[in-house]
């Protein structure tokens, strides 16, 4: 039974592999995800891209998300997780990179509660703050004084909110760390070694047995509307 049937209210079984990809701002997550997709056949999702795609879809759900963003409010973790879940179910692939997520412990807990699985591992792109600052500033022409404060705030949020997620999975033996201060080519050589060692035999399949309930269905999105009124103060960038 395909994933679209599951989203329309029928049970479905789908075996998948999930790898979370985390790193500080400017660590090269997007660049490396593109390379992983090309070499290992994963499908790449990011929470931000999924939210933007939903707002552009013209759906009632997307309009409400867009309005929340315009008002400076934040979408509840449960909503973000359901968008990721929906994207995985509708994909023909069974291997997924989830980039920049979980951003915090609330994201992680919501993902495990709703999707009911853990990642195969978390790929952590480790890079010193000084190097991240240099990279981010080099992306801007001028106005360095205006940007440095914002960059430091982003790094502070990463340290306070995202590193605890890395620590959680590290305690469970699920973190694979690479030195992201190297050149992109050198970083990917390290990543290739990690994925090659897990490819095939060692990455075990996790099976999602999802009994599609109304709150899982995009067509019955009203079940999720209470969450759209939530202002999650812990999910600020």
TrEMBL record:
One of its GO terms (molecular function) is nucleobase-containing compound kinase activity. Gene3D superfamilies: P-loop containing nucleotide triphosphate hydrolases (3.40.50.300). Its main location: cytoplasm. CMP binds at residue 107. It is found in: Cytoplasm; Nucleus. The keyword Kinase applies. GO terms for cellular component: cytoplasm; nucleus. It comes from the Eukaryota. The keyword NADP does not apply. Its EC number is 2.7.4.14. Its cofactor is Mg(2+). Catalyzes the phosphorylation of pyrimidine nucleoside monophosphates at the expense of ATP. Plays an important role in de novo pyrimidine nucleotide biosynthesis. Has preference for UMP and CMP as phosphate acceptors. Monomer. This is UMP-CMP kinase. It comes from Rhynchospora pubera. The lineage of its organism: Eukaryota, Viridiplantae, Streptophyta, Embryophyta, Tracheophyta.
